Amino acid sequence: MAELTPIEEVIVKAMQELGATKDSVIKTADDITKKCNRPKGLVTNALVSLTQKGVIKRVAREKAAGYYVIPK
Q1: How far, in Å, are 7, 42, 49, 62, 72 from residue 46 at the CA level?
Q2: Domain range list for the chain
Q3: Treating both helix axes as pointing N-terminal to C-terminal, what angle do 40-53 and 6-18 enclose, rounded to 10 degrees?
Q4: What are phi and psi of 60, to 5 degrees?
Q5: Taking the model in full, what pTM does it have?
Q6: pLDDT for 15-71, tens place per residue?
Q7: Rounded Cα gap, residues 72 and 67, in angstroms
């Protein structure tokens, strides 16, 4: 797995605690921001980075995009 920054580790852990570990259970950036109690801009940037590293998957939807952790 790619090297994660401390904020990325916090976000992945928060997503796992929220149950966002498969494509049928996805969480929005707002859900993740509330769970890890960090600024939204920081969380959003980390989500983009995690997506590029292949750790999480982004699912485009009509309203807000959703995210889930890709199983190892």
Answers
A1: 7, 6, 5, 22, 19
A2: 6-69
A3: 90
A4: -75, 130
A5: 0.91
A6: 999 999 998 999 999 999 999 999 999 999 999 999 999 999 999 999 999 999 998
A7: 16
**Type of residue numbered 6:** P
Question: What's the residue count for the chain?
Answer: 72
| Single-letter amino acid, residue 5 | T
Q: What is the CATH number of domain 6-69?
A: 1.10.10.10
Q: Which two tokens stand for residue 34?
A: 């509330």
Phi-psi map region of 37: left, alpha, beta (phi>0 left; psi -120 to 50 alpha): left
| Local structure of 38: helix, strand or coil | coil
